[in-house]
Amino acid sequence: MDTAFSALSDPTRRGVLEQLGREEASITDLADRFRMTLTGMRKHVGVLERAGLIVTEKVGRVRTCRIGPRRLEEAAAWIERYQQLWDARFGELDQVIEELKRKEKSDGRKKTG
Amino acid sequence: MDARRPGELAPTKNVTKVERKSDREIVVTRSFDAPARLVFEAWSNPELFVRWWVPKSMGMTLRSCEMDVRTGGRYRLGFGDGMDFFGRYLEVTPPSRIVWTNEEGGENGSVTTVTLTETDGKTLVVVSELYPSKEALDADGGGAADALHETFGQLDELLAELASNT
After folding, report:
1. Residue B112 belongs to domain with CATH number
2. Does residue B102 lie in a domain region?
3. B142 touches chain A (CB under 8 A)
4. Structural domains present in chain A
5. Which residue from B minimizes the CA distance to A48?
6. Which of B9, B128, B155 is the mutation pick for testing A, counting most A CBs within 10 A?
7. Quick check: helix, strand or coil at residue A108?
8. What is the mean pLDDT of residues A71-76?
9. What is the ipTM of this complex?
10. Which domain holds residue B121?
11. pLDDT higher at B28 or A20
């Protein structure tokens, strides 16, 4: 899990995904924005497209790119919500446990429950 | 990892990790700075349990809680409006293991296994939610979880490709 994400920390590639998450763009737009040659950007786009993360469509002479069918953000958001629920839950549990620890100490290890 | 700021009084923040282990299983891991018997107590004593199981951020209020925490015992958590979570304890072994069914989802319900492992006065809590099928997990979590799994596969390919290109 972590390996995959940390490897995506390549700034250009992540930037392209983020950018396309906001709005579609042509390869020329992307190349400009990321200060790359058209050829370089075309290569990146090709890799992202083969991975299903983006789709491209050629209209006239312009190839437009947009976020693909793999709903990366949506998927990550679900796991994140799940993680947040458990983290919040366990945060509260910490407090209950701290209280039990204090009580146990003051009771001189009197058995509870 | 150990990025505690000087002067910070709060105890070390233990990290909650969530992993999708397989098509059918999600696993949550977290450490607690207390012996297992206290963690178990907080999990099996209804009065304590209701204080943490439904955090404010969940946006729900627990109206009732019945728990017969022993192997074969039943539980029911009521949230009002007929929304109840209920099931049966398949195994209760103090202070290390609690297994229960989640029956509100009918035959697609998951089985939750909580394992407490104590080491040097700290307790590692592992919560596994195992669904009868991939579809059942997706229905509960949204197909997104599956997409995530697939996406990671995709990312692995992508990264391999990137690595070979450079």
Report:
1. 3.30.530.20
2. yes
3. yes
4. 2-67 (1.10.10.10), 71-113 (no CATH)
5. B158
6. B155
7. coil
8. 58
9. 0.73
10. 17-133
11. B28
- Say how many CA atoms lie within 13 Å of A58 toward its Cβ: 3
Using a CB–CB cutoff of 8 Å, tell me whether A4 touches chain B: yes
pLDDT at A98: 95
Cβ within 8 Å of residue B53, ≥6 positions away: A89, B62, B77
Low-confidence stretches of chain B (pLDDT beneath 50): 1-2, 4, 7-8, 142-153, 155, 159, 166
Give dist(CA B150, CA A45) in Å, integer: 20
Measure the CA–CA gap between A67 and A16, rounded to whole angstroms.
10
> Chain B within 8 Å of A71 (Cβ-Cβ)?
yes
CB of B42 within 8 Å of any CB in chain A? yes
pLDDT tens readout for residues B100-128: 999 987 888 899 999 999 999 999 999 99
- pLDDT (0 to 100) of residue A113: 47
Q: Across the interface, which of A5, A47, A71 has its CB nearest the CB of B144?
A: A71
pLDDT at B88: 97
Q: What is the pLDDT of residues A40-54, one digit of tens each?
A: 999 888 878 877 778
Contacts of B128 in chain A (CB under 8 A): none
Contacts of A90 in chain B (CB under 8 A): 14, 16, 30, 32, 52, 125
* Closest-approach residue (CA) in chain B for A44: B162
Q: Whose CA is closest to A46, among A65, A21, A28?
A: A65
Whether B60 has its CB under 8 Å from any CB of chain A: the answer is no
d(CA B55, CA A93): 9
Nearest CA in chain B to A1: B152
Q: Return the DSSP state at B95.
A: T
